[in-house]
Each structure stands twice: as C-alpha cells, then as structure tokens.
Amino acid sequence: MGLYDYQVKNMDENDISLSNYKGKVLLIVNTATGCGFTPQYNGLQELYEKYRSKGFEILDFPCNQFGNQAPGSEEEIQAFCQLRYRITFPQFAKIDVNGENEEPLYTFLKTQQGGLMGPKIKWNFTKFLVNRKGEVVKRYAPATTPRSIEKDIQKLLESK
C-alpha cells in the first residue's frame, strides 16, 4: 500500500481518502494542545499560508498518547487551535500513533522513515514530509521547528 491508499477520519468522523492530496507536498504532524511544542502551531500556520497556493498541505492529527496533552474532544481541540493559533489547515480526528490502536497511516509513515531512535513516535509534533509522488522523504523530531523545515518544503515544491 502507498500513502494515497489510506483513509483517515476528519474531525466530523467522516472518512477522507489521502488520494485527495495527490500531487501535493504534505507535512503530516501529530499534535497536542497542551504541550511545550504547541506554539509550533504558529509556525505551521505561517508555512501553510505561504505555500498552500503552491501545492502544500499540512495534515494535523491530534494525539493524546504523550502525557495526556490533548485531552479534549475533537471539537474542543479544533476550537482551541482556531481561536488561539488561527489555524486553517486540515485537522483530523484524534488518533494513536503507537501501540495496538495505532492509526494505520502512522504505521506506514514509520515504516518509511523510522527515525534515529527507531520507528516509535517519541512525542507530540513529530513531523513527516511527503513529496508530490506520495513518498515519505523525511522525518523530523518534535523539537524541529516549522521554520527550519521551510527549505526542504521549498525544494519539494520546486520539483515536479
């Protein structure tokens, strides 16, 4: 299976096919609203505003597996992010990124880019960069800021 074969749930629990994002450069992020990295939403939104018209999308997957830092409902998480950070990129239903209830998309992402510490997601705001062909080209640690990823995004947007 490739990236575009997966379906995920949006905030309203409707199935969304990742094939809707064919031809786009994607940044897929597991997020939390009560994390020390939560202010990264500002940088993510800046990237989204700057590059969306060029074929860039951010896919936000809230996750409560790390320190109970995303405890709210989907509606509460979405309201928080829109009010506090004014995000406009797609947010999806809350998921698990590790373990027996792991979202299959994350199983795929981790097999493509295991990371320096092995395949397990270690914390919120782990980021996966995907090229226009649906290939997972890079994985970034939670502390990696959105701004520091910008050059990699630009490079992928420039290649057709």
What's the arrangement of secondary structure elements?
Blueprint: E1 7-9, E2 15-17, E3 25-31, H1 40-51, E4 56-62, H2 74-85, H3 104-112, E5 127-130, E6 136-140, H4 146-158
Parallel strand pairs: 3-4
Antiparallel strand pairs: 1-2, 3-5, 5-6
Describe this structure in words.
The chain is of the alpha+beta class and 160 residues long. The chain contains 4 helices and 6 strands; from the N terminus they run βββαβααββα. It has helices spanning 40-51, 74-85, 104-112, 146-158, and strands spanning 7-9, 15-17, 25-31, 56-62, 127-130, 136-140. Strands 4-3-5-6 form a 4-stranded mixed beta sheet, with helices on one face.
Q: Which features would summarize this protein structure in a list?
A:
single chain, 160 residues, alpha+beta, Glutaredoxin, 4-stranded mixed β-sheet, two-stranded antiparallel ribbon, 4 helices, 6 strands
Summarize the entry for a quick read.
With 160 residues, the chain is of the alpha+beta class.
According to CATH, the homologous superfamily is Glutaredoxin
Number of helical segments with 4 or more residues: 4
CATH architecture name: 3-Layer(aba) Sandwich
Taking strands numbered 1, 2, ... along the chain, how are they ordered across the largest sheet?
Answer: 4-3-5-6
Quote the beta fraction.
15-25%
Distance between the termini: 22 Å
